[in-house]
């Protein structure tokens, strides 16, 4: 296991997990430690290819006992089926950059860690989560 690669993964807010040379559980343990050491929500983007907008990736974040999770398949965003949009936002930070997520999209931190562990083992969208496609926001009404 490359300690430098694992630390870079945390410092960079995620990254390409193909060449970490670490057991999936070791990486999840490091994500747990990173989240526990933070007083704010911490997020990571995990992928297994060159980081392009079309690259499938898992977005995961943890804030205390809650967390966020989404899957980008290259064309659409998928979110846990059990979540809803509330209009209230919670704050997370990825590599020091602020991101807001809808509070209704939070699930348990344990679900986030299980999904991250599965992704790290399979490099596929985690099956431990029931997913639904996130519909894009409707276009604003025309004022013409």
Outline the secondary-structure elements:
Layout: H1 3-11, E1 14-16, H2 24-37, E2 41-47, E3 57-63, E4 66-72, E5 77-80, E6 89-94, E7 97-102, E8 107-108, H3 109-122, E9 131-133
Parallel strand pairs: 1-2, 2-6
Antiparallel strand pairs: 2-3, 3-4, 4-5, 4-8, 5-9, 6-7
Helix pairs in contact: 2-3
Walk me through what this model shows.
By secondary structure, this protein is of the alpha+beta class. It has one domain. It is built from three helices and nine strands, in the order H-E-H-E-E-E-E-E-E-E-H-E. The chain has helices at about 5-10, 25-35, 110-120, and strands at about 15, 40-45, 55-65, 65-70, 75-80, 90-95, 95-100, 105-110, 130-135. Strands 1, 2, 3, 4, 5, 6, 7, 8 and 9 form a nine-stranded mixed sheet that branches. The longest helix has 14 residues, at about 25-35. It is globular. The model has no long low-confidence stretch (mean pLDDT about 85). InterPro entries: DddI. This is Immunity protein Imm1. Pfam families: Imm1 (PF14430).
């Amino acid at each position: 296991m490359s300690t430098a690669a694992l630390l870079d993964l945390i410092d960079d807010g995620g990254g390409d997990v193909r060449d970490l040379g670490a057991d999936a559980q070791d990486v999840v343990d490091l994500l747990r430690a990173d989240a526990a050491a933070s007083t704010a929500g911490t997020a990571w983007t995990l992928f297994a290819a060159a980081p392009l907008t079309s690259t499938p990736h898992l977005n995961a974040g943890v804030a205390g006992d809650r967390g966020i999770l989404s899957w980008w398949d290259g064309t659409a965003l998928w979110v846990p089926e059990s979540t809803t949009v509330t209009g209230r936002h919670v704050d997370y930070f990825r590599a020091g950059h602020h991101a807001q997520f809808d509070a209704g999209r939070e699930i348990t931190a344990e679900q986030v860690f299980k999904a991250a562990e599965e992704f790290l083992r399979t490099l596929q969208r985690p099956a431990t989560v029931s997913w639904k496609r996130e519909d894009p926001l409707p276009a604003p009404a025309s004022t013409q």
